[in-house]
Amino acid sequence: MSGRFSGSVVLVAGGTGGLGRAVTSAFLEESATVVVTYRNQPEWEKFKTAASAHAARLEGHEVDVTDEAAVRQLVEKILSKHSRLDALVNTVGGYAGGLKLWEMETKVFEQMLNLNLRSGYALSRAAVPAMLKQGRGAIVNVAAKAALDHAAGASAYAASKAAAVAMLDSLAADVKGTGVRVNTILPSIIDTEANRNAMPKADFAKWPKPRDIARVILFLCSDDAKVIQGAAIPVYGDS
Predict the structure, then answer these.
(1) How many CB atoms lie within 10 A of CB 217?
(2) What single-letter DSSP state applies at residue 33?
(3) How far is CA 148 from the centre of its chain?
């Protein structure tokens, strides 16, 4: 076990999901204290049991990260208990596709904006002031290849991911020179159980693995990446 993040406090939004679990586990293995948000209680309980060796450094909170007040209260709790927040990783997101724009219900468009854009807005809005006060911190937001590659039938998804990249890029410019760094990663289809079930005939071998993406995220949160600011990094695997 490496101690690269020993003493660090990390918030992983969606930390029990397919990618979130890998990110949380990687931080725990590198000695960080990790606070995760989740929406599915059984999923949290299962993950907490599996991570029992690191139980003393793992905390979970059932929070809707599109709710600004709830996110602000969570960050206040973290600061009250730990007096710091060193990194924020947002793995929350959703996908809706296969519909032409004029056939899509407006509620689907709004759902994509909430999950893929508003979550990063609410989390960053709550975390940045604390990071500015301490003079350091790292934020990594998970967007998608679709932010750049706008396929047919994915207008709401692509728009929400593209907007998220633009928002985080602008935020990176806002905090330039403060010791706070903001970056984005752009996965293609991630090799998760949910994606395999949704696309059983796909070639899973070409999809990037959660653990490999997690390594990129940890690098971006580490001092080794101190010169990387405002980047949108592709993590496409072979797809």
Answers:
(1) 25
(2) E
(3) 18
Chain-centre distance for alpha carbon 153: 24
Amino acid at 228: I
CA atoms within 13 A on the CB side of 74: 28
At 49, give phi and psi (nearest 5°).
-65, -45
Amino acid found at 118: R
Residue of 119, 106, 86, 153 whose CA lies nearest to 17: 119
Residues 128-183 have pLDDT tens digits of 999 999 999 999 999 999 899 898 999 999 999 999 999 999 999 999 999 999 99
Q: Tell me how far apart the alpha carbons of residues 66 and 107 are, in angstroms, rounded to a whole number.
A: 15
Output the pLDDT for position 170: 98
Distance, in Å, from the CA atom of 167 to the CA atom of 139, rounded to the nearest integer, reads 12
Give dist(CA 229, CA 175) in Å, integer: 9
Domains, the chain, with CATH or none: 9-235 (3.40.50.720)
State how far the Cα of 203 lies from the Cα of 238, in Å rounded to an integer: 10
Select from 183, 181, 184, 185 the least CA-distant residue to 212: 185
Is the separation of the CB atoms in 15 and 21 below 8 Å?
Answer: yes
List Cα–Cα distances, 45 to 55, 140, 210, in angstroms: 12, 25, 20
Assigned token pair, 178: 């403060």
Q: Name the burial class of residue 223, with classes exposed (0-12), middle (13-18) and buried (19+) by CB atoms within 10 angstroms of its CB.
A: exposed
Q: How confident is the prediction for the chain on average, in pLDDT?
A: 93
Please give the model's pTM, rounded to 2 decimal places: 0.94
